[in-house]
Design brief:
alpha/beta, 2 domains, two-stranded antiparallel ribbon, 6 helices, 6 strands, globular, P-loop_NTPase
Length: 161
């Protein structure tokens, strides 16, 4: 990788360090105590991870100080999740969450800084470049140069599922 970050896949971490988690069969998702998760990440990675660490996953905004929320058009999310054989109700829940900015709103409530990247029509390298730009701006305390990534540019409310 051309970027010098350690990546933590939050789902894999949860499976390894919280195997006692149970599934919510109605929502087809793990029930996770995010406060315990935050403490586990801090204690587990305290001495083993060199900065910077990127935590990837839908619950990551519960355990970080700065969040980059990747946004995708609802119809793309619907197609991706259908290809993964998600149940219709899980697809609908995820699409509605994207339209209503659920993760973005939660990140605002929990994180010191929140940024968003509209992934529409962008390949993974472009998205990674934008994320690197944001992380570099944070590390260099040049937050003023990151205004174009501040939330508010992505609005899916006119879309329907």
């Amino acid at each position: 990788s051309e970027y010098n970050y350690q990546i933590l896949d939050l789902y894999n971490f949860i499976e390894e360090y919280q195997p006692e988690n149970i599934m919510d069969p109605k929502r087809d998702s793990l029930i996770v105590d995010t406060e315990i998760l935050r403490k586990q990440i801090n204690s587990t990675l305290k001495y083993t991870v060199n900065e910077p660490l990127v935590i990837d996953g839908h619950l990551s905004h519960y355990v970080v100080d700065n969040a980059i929320v990747l946004r995708a058009p609802p119809e793309i999310i619907e197609k991706r999740l259908a290809l993964r054989n998600y149940s219709e109700s899980k697809v609908t829940e995820n699409v509605e969450a994207e339209i209503l900015d659920v993760i973005l709103v939660e990140a605002f409530e929990l994180c010191e800084n929140v940024f968003e990247i509209d992934t529409s029509g962008k390949d993974i390298n472009t998205v990674a470049m934008y994320a690197d730009y944001i992380i570099s701006g944070l590390k260099q305390n040049k937050i003023d140069r990151l205004e174009k990534f501040r939330p508010g540019n992505v609005d899916w409310t006119e879309r329907s599922i």
